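Protein Entry — a single chain follows
Fields — amino acid sequence, structure tokens
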Amino acid sequence: LGLVEKLALTKKEKNAKEIEHRKELGLPVPY
């Protein structure tokens, strides 16, 4: 993987974790 792909992947993983976290807390998910 190139650097750009790695960054994109990391960002996707962060978004996924954020969504999971919000679901656990019962917060609305913005997307």
Summary: The chain has one domain: 1-31. The mean pLDDT is 89.
